[in-house]
Fold these 2 entries.
Entry 1:
Amino acid sequence: MSFELIHTSVPRGLRGDSGFATAVATRALPVGLESVLAELSAYDFDANRCVGVDRVDWAHRILTLRGKSFTVLSRVAPCGNDSSGRPNRIAHHLVLDADERASAGPAWMLDAFSGFSHTVPPIAEPSEGPQLPTGSLEPRRATAWESAGFDPGWAGIVARTVLEAPNSVCYVVLPNELNALPLAADVLALLPIERRWHVSFSTRFQRLPAAAKCQIRFVRNNATGLSKLLNEPGVRQVTVTASVAADASPAAEAARSGRFVESTLRAPPSTRVVPVLHATPQLNGHERVGVNPASAATPRAPSVSNAPTVLTNTGDSEHFLPLFDANERATKQAPPPRARAASTALSSVPPLALFLFAYSAVATAIAVLLFVFAAR
């Protein structure tokens, strides 16, 4: 079940407060969500201070509250003046269940949803959320970037960046203010379908509460305070210039031709130890043609191929490397020459002689003890 919340300046809100407050909220909204969504409803009217590239903040964010994740689609935009004459804004948030997320992705869904409020609505608490659009979207040429005056390949560069660094923030630096939602839709269309809802974004980025995640942040070049954001540790940056084409990488070419962008990262080599045993058939000697039964019963030495091996993953294939070679194995298993000679000498003495030798030794020891006792 989806939920919605509309936050704006009203004389008296749903909870009885005035000023910027909740005007509409679906009944049974999960505990804790309302306060976080209120924080996400902020709008900076100062164009010199705001770093976002769009006049409207179109956003897909992932919230984590009490160990549970929520998908939130938002539209925050100016909304005339409030009753006191001050600039007003309206924030409309949609909270989606997993089965309500269109495979086309969050940017497509933001554009397709026609129920966003552009004016202050009546105070209400509906029992259920709004009807949401559904649809699919195949990868396509990044025509929105082209229409904005940029090389379509830049969309592929952004897509590759978020695929290769899914836990890092990516700032997309654009030269001037524009409608960035179509640009976000082009980027997400290039991603594998199962990855689209893992990527969050904002077209007019502002500081976030701790519970919210926003990966792609569309910002305006030379905005006040932008350099500080770009210097934060771990962030990625894609600076787009209208007069400069993206590179000829596979990701850029995929955006130009309308194909899925794939990560160019390869998994690091694995050093797992995997025993590889080559078993030999266990056949009875009488069942072998032309084999003497006596010789067939003679046990065979274990094959060197039974040695454990190291599995090394090079990315393209797996190579099995013996831990030691046959000569080293033979050296470890063979006894030293002196031990072999002593063993051979003992095996040639008759058993009766060995018994008599042991008996005489014991008798001699007893006689010595008796003599010593008698002498005392």
Entry 2:
Amino acid sequence: MTEMQELSDKLHSVLKITEEAPTGSPSAYLADSVDRSDSDATEDRAQWREFDRFMDKQAKERPYPKYLYRAHVHGHPFPRLPDVFEGDSDSFGSDYHLWCENNAVSPILVPIDDPMDISTVEDFFYELSLHLGKTSFNLPPRDDDEQPFRSSLVSLSGDFCWTTQRICRIGRITNKKKDQLPGLAIFKSSTIGSSGVRVWRVEDMLSYLDKRLGKNSVHISPDLRRWATNADEFVCWSLVPRDALVAFTPLPGLIKALDGRKKAFLTKEFVDSNYLGDFRRLPLVHISRREYADRASEFVRNIITNVSSLEEAKQLCMHMKEVLSNPYTWGYEVARSVKGLDEAISGLWKQP
């Protein structure tokens, strides 16, 4: 772990925003801090091209989901930045990117780098191994001299249920006194890619590691591999662009019904479980088909409330019909094909 932390620190050192050059490019710092021969640089670029080709091939064979999700906490691990034009200038950055924003007191002054410009593929996988090994909240330093690991990667998931349960758990340990706002973010994956920010499926990355680099080059434990696979985890470098955000639903909007007289879609058992595996072992809640459809449509209504366009709301509604079509996934005992669910959810985007 110490060696991997040192490698990560070296990567971060070339990106550090200094008082002398707060807007300098990462490549400029790299030129001053890393002494590599031309042949090494050529080999590095060739390996990155091989990695890109491999990941592109995997993505064609197993296309990325239309939407990716993130259990996110605005205001963690650093305070939210005030923005005089848009209120809080919240971004979906990595721990390291948010640390840079906090130091610069503005997201505008933080350069967006590309891992290809500052590291080798193997170094990149060391960063991934550290990232997968950390929790969603940084652990405190183990002694006075040790700093918490600030990852340059941002995690996303292709599994809506997994992410929803994750934010319920995270929400229980957020600090409201520090203006921390937990919620579920939904991103359009095609917009992430078209913005120039790279996004990768971790399971495909692990396949590249095993087939091309060899398991001995960077060790990622079986437990971490299972975690990434179960979550259908994806990662972006540095941040997820705000342009890709379709909806952000604060936690109360997920666990409470807009109409206080109605019951929320997410059961208390779901909200209070630490892991989906724990939740799956609990007894199912028995309700009628109509009741399930009503709860599900209210849940979707909360999510699409802040969607910017009617067309986007319509597309998200259609997607949510598929996500919620199996009541068992959400802890309910009703018929697998729920009569009325299609009509209830489809009608939401038509309402004023």
